[in-house]
Amino acid sequence: MTKAGSKGGNLRDKLDGNELDLSLSDLNEVPVKELAALPKATVLDLSCNKLTTLPSDFCGLTHLVKLDLSKNKLRQLPADFGRLVNLQHLDLLNNRLVTLPVSFAQLKSLKWLDLKDNPLDPVLAKVAGDCLDEKQCKQCANKVLQHMKAVQADQERERQRRLEIDREAEKKWEAKQRAKEAQERELRKREKAEEKERRRKEYDALKAAKREQEKKPKKETNQAPKSKSSSRPRKPPPRKHTRSWAVLKLLLLLLLCVAGGLVACRVTELQQQPLCTSVNTIYDNAVRGLRSHDILQWVLQADSQQ
């Protein structure tokens, strides 16, 4: 291991082989995040540097075998700290750690671990125990790994349980949605059926009304002859009146003709004709008969008195 305790120079110039040991003065000069430029570093000493956090890029140093982070002010490790799968020796003495990331369970190569002087969670502190010698530190590494694997398994089961609950809730929601959609479809279907039935009734009503309207003229036509037949006794008088006027006109015409013929037979030279002789004879006989009639004589006397 090469010590890089002097100031100045590039970080790569301070790297000798794959081992790097940085002191406080070095970190004041070189940010911790630049350590990602050394992906093949295997040993890294960052103790006594007052570090409060580690950047996520730090976990890219996957070739690290030994890491010393003791006597800093770390409150937590990066969530993906488990990417350091080749790490065998980890010193976290005298920090401010309460818990470890779940990914810590992935450090399958870890053989040595020191968590003394940290305000650990009581359960984790009991699992870690003391690290006063090599044996206890190895036991700490083994027990903490087993504990973190159990925590990881519990969290995975909890995650699976929550996923199952979420899936069940999603299934229930989907079933509820399907039931709701089916209910809406049934409602729409029923509304369509009701609308169809309403239209059918309206159509039947219109059709029935149309049939009724078609029947009314027939009834009127059937009733019309009755009304005509009932009014026939009233209408014949005009016809009889018209017929009587025609007969009267005909009689007047005949009377005029007879009068004309009578005048011709009595006044003109035709009176010597045989026909006129017969006519004159009939006229004379009629006049004598009328004069001998009592009623006619009474009328004539009344006229003469006036």
How would you sum up this structure, described in words?
With 306 residues, this protein is mainly alpha-helical. The protein has a domain at 12-155: Ribonuclease Inhibitor (Leucine-rich repeat, LRR (right-handed beta-alpha superhelix), Alpha-Beta Horseshoe), CATH 3.80.10. Helices cover 58% and strands 6% of the residues. It is built from seven helices and six strands, in the order βαβαββββααααα. The protein has helices at 11-14, 24-29, 122-128, 134-231, 236-267, 274-291, 294-305; strands spanning 3-4, 19-22, 43-45, 66-68, 89-91, 112-114. Strands 1-2-3-4-5-6 form a six-stranded parallel beta sheet. Helix 2 (24-29) links the parallel strand 2 (19-22) and strand 3 (43-45). Mean pLDDT is 79; it is low at 1-16 and 22-26. Residues 229-241 have a biased composition (Basic residues).
Order of helices and strands: EHEHEEEEHHHHH
**β-sheet strand percentage:** 5-15%
Query: Could you give the count of β-strands?
Result: 6
What overall form do the CA principal axes indicate? rod-shaped
If you average the pLDDT, what whole number results?
Answer: 79
How many H/I helical runs? 7
Q: Which strand order do you get reading across the main beta sheet?
A: 1-2-3-4-5-6
SS content category: mainly alpha
What top-tier CATH class of the domain at 12-155 fits best? Answer: Alpha Beta
Largest sheet: 6 strands, parallel
- The quaternary state of the protein chains shown equals single chain
The end-to-end span amounts to 186 Å
CATH superfamily of the domain at 12-155: Ribonuclease Inhibitor
Rg from Cα:
71 Å
CATH topology of the domain at 12-155: Leucine-rich repeat, LRR (right-handed beta-alpha superhelix)
What portion of residues is helical? 55-70%
Q: Low-confidence runs (pLDDT<50, min 5 residues)?
A: 1-16, 22-26
CATH hierarchy: architecture of the domain at 12-155: Alpha-Beta Horseshoe
